[in-house]
Amino acid sequence: MKIDIFSEMQHPKELWGDDGQYEHRLFEQTLEQARLADEMGYGCWWEVEHHTAVEFSFSSAPELMLTAIAQHTNQIDVGHAAVLAPSRFNHAIRIAERAAFLDHLSNGRLQMGLARSTVPEWRTFNIDADSTRDQLQQTFEMVPKMWTQDRFSWKSDQYEINDVSIIPKPYQKPHPPLWQACSSIPSFEQAGRNGVGALGVTLWASHEEVQGMVDIYRKASAECENPVGEFQNNQIAFFTFVHGAESQAEALANGAAGAAAWYTNEAFSFFEVRESFIEVAREMEAAASDPAGGGLVGQYARDHADPSEAAIMIGRIMEGEQVGEDEMFEVLSRQESLIVGDQDKIREGFKFYEEVGIDRLMTLHQVGPLSHDKIMKSIRLVGEVIPEFDRP
Length: 392
Hints:
single chain, eight-stranded parallel beta barrel
């Protein structure tokens, strides 16, 4: 199992200071963290794309940050997790061009993900939500062809591209590995059927739910006969909050509980989670009640009808209840959604993901108000156990 790093580039206002240099300071700290990750043997630095997210994410131009990281490191892969695929964000031609360029500048270290995005960003860019899954699918089908064909054409309700040559071609041949950001069971199935890797989140998922997501992806991937790319990237990656310290007491003193609560509250606010949860719930309910069975999604919905403790807590938050950071941390810790503590605790958490069949664990260190020095120590402590999991 590869041990990677996942970065939102978060920066709470309480850390901004009065000198007006907080953005520049964040960029410099991110580069310093990436250099250390490279030295410690992490597999890939994954960077998100978000817009107008303020404190939650300053990563509005991840291709630039990843280019800088590629120039400051030697071995670590650079992962775009993920490019927002609807055309009002990024036209497919621009996605293909920028990714190929980055693949050259990183000497073939690019891992390439695509995503639909979410409600607030669709609204900002005037995107019809109902069109996003189809646009994502078409982008997955177009980009590998743009990378491998001398001339490219495409015509659909969303796109019309007539006999153009798209350059440069990627450094990796035939092209970089493709991934899909997955935040719902239908997206895990879509990624598997497309023959692309799945980038998931475990921060609020129980071990049973993680196992179910992995099973859905593996079953769909096994049924993939025509991958969208030139090869099938049959890998699954999950990100979760990881904070390494000398002891559990030190981790909590560093502010790990507050950071987990901050991330949860900010994510629910920025992503307008209530609407997203309702949309996914309707999709799952329809699949579960489908007379034909609803396929893999319907089976998952029937097998996981009882909500986890974290799901119940999320429901309380969506109803407007204020859940304290201690309770939130305890709930997430009880279902082992977080990996927080000393190196033995880190090993224990990593072993579950290794045993369940995760190919890459994307460790999220830079969370909320955690200070840069504590993040650097966490990256180092986790890095020291990497050889136990990332074996030749």
